[in-house]
Write a structure and sequence with these properties.
Blueprint lengths: L1 H25 L3 H40 L3 H28 L24 H8 L4 H7 L2 H17 L4 H26 L1 H13 L4 H33 L4 H18 L2 H16 L3 H14 L2 H17 L6 H16 L7 H12 L7 H33 L2
Helix pairs in contact: 1-8, 1-16, 2-6, 2-7, 2-8, 2-15, 3-9, 3-12, 3-13, 3-14, 3-16, 8-16, 9-13, 9-16, 10-11, 10-16, 11-12, 11-16, 12-16, 13-14, 13-15, 13-16
Length: 402
């Protein structure tokens, strides 16, 4: 009952904090603005503190389980369809972003935090790629180079999955999982105090940005995120099913109880028992496939999360002055897919991981303060899409190996 009440009151508290923050920012009091900027800076520093361990541990522990979860045709098909659908979701989000082109917030907001992006020297595409490849492990951690750390985490996770089972491997992985649990506790504590951060971020933005610009820019951003989810849900995923000779209307009709539960619970993990039961008893998927594929998909198949990470990152970076060239967009499509797959078990999942990525590269994360209350609705749609994608992967795998 307590969790139910918390899930009801939390969005209300966020909205109240947002409204109060906007009002405080519009008052135009110098002493109040100074206090607001101080609180916002404290939260940004805390996000930056947790960014590196959150990303590195999540990606390593997720990929490290690939070897122990099993191998063979079932796992191969599951991973293949997961990557294809997740990349498709990110690409749809990128194309929509380019077409709808959300506008910038006021450039003055960049001067309110210590996460300002300074003008970087012009680099060629090859130089940019070389800057991501680390030549010193310690340096990558000390500098908080998120792109380099993602590459390292991916390599270490895959390397662990290839190691033969032994006591040393078990102890090492358990140690990483223990560290991840500790980081999650710190994250939950930070999230518990987050209404204060929302208030500060909202006040900071409202003091610098006109309401019309915010409404138009944020409105287009939300349209890109939700539009991408709708296209992925009703067009892209059905096309995958049709390509494998499956009827998408039939599959969706059979899996509707799980999709609806995901929409209202906002949790793929909580929906998993219903998803498995629905797949076996309504869709007719073989038990050995449903019980192997769906738990893995719940962990790594994050279509909605990949799209959210990509679109939100592009929006925040654009507002931070980063030119969104096609090479930058393609690079962040890859980053969003890897991050989404590695986003297992993080509270507030996609939102916090995106915030960590942005704070790690010095982007103006204060913008995410306005996005947070809207994320409640986005999260519902994303979770429904994730479970629908899990169902599609399971159905296609069952069909291929039937």
């Amino acid at each position: 009952m307590k969790q139910t009440k918390a899930s009801i009151y939390q969005p209300i508290l966020w909205i109240v904090a947002l409204v109060v923050g906007v009002i405080m920012g519009l008052l135009g009091l110098d002493w109040l603005n100074g206090l607001i900027n101080f609180v916002a800076t404290v939260y940004i520093r805390l996000f930056q503190l947790l960014a590196v361990p959150t990303i590195v541990l999540a990606v390593i522990t997720t990929f490290a389980t690939f070897g122990s979860e099993g191998s063979g045709k079932i796992f191969g098909r599951t991973l293949l369809y997961t990557l294809l659908t997740t990349f498709a979701a990110a690409i749809v989000g990128a194309l929509l972003y380019v077409v709808l082109a959300p506008g910038n917030l006021s450039i003055e907001i960049l001067h309110q935090t210590d996460s300002v992006i300074t003008d970087a020297p012009q680099q060629s595409y090859y130089d940019h790629i070389l800057s991501v490849i680390p030549n010193n492990i310690v340096k990558a951690f000390l500098e908080g180079n998120v792109l380099s750390l993602l590459l390292l985490a991916f390599a270490v996770g895959i390397g662990l999955s290839k190691l033969p089972e032994s006591e040393n491997k078990t102890v090492f992985v358990k140690g990483l999982l223990g560290l991840q649990d500790l980081v999650f506790i710190l994250i939950r504590g930070l999230i518990w105090t987050l209404p204060l951060g929302i208030l500060a971020f909202a006040a900071q933005l409202s003091a610098q940005v006109s309401a019309g610009v915010v409404a138009d820019s944020i409105g287009r951003y939300v349209l890109v995120v939700l539009g991408g989810n709708v296209i992925q849900f009703f067009i892209v995923l059905p096309l995958f099913l049709l390509a494998r000779g499956l009827n998408p209307v039939y599959v969706l009709g059979r899996m509707m109880p799980a999709v609806l539960m995901a929409l209202f619970t906002k949790s793929s993990a909580a929906t998993l028992p219903v998803t498995m039961d629905t797949a076996e008893n309504r869709l007719g998927v073989k038990k050995n496939i449903a019980r192997f594929v769906l738990p893995i998909c719940t962990t790594i198949n994050m279509n909605g999360c990949a799209a959210f990470i990509l679109v939100t990152s592009l929006f925040v970076m654009q507002n931070g002055g980063t030119p969104l060239t096609w090479s930058t967009i393609l690079l962040w499509i890859l980053i969003s897919v890897i991050s989404a797959i590695g986003n297992a078990g993080v509270p507030m999942g996609c939102y916090f991981l995106t915030l960590s990525l942005m704070s790690g590269i010095g982007a103006p994360v204060a913008i995410l303060g306005i996005i947070l209350p809207i994320y409640t609705i986005i999260d519902m749609v994303e979770t429904a899409e994730n479970v629908w994608s899990d169902s599609c992967v399971c159905a296609m795998t069952d069909h291929d190996l039937g």
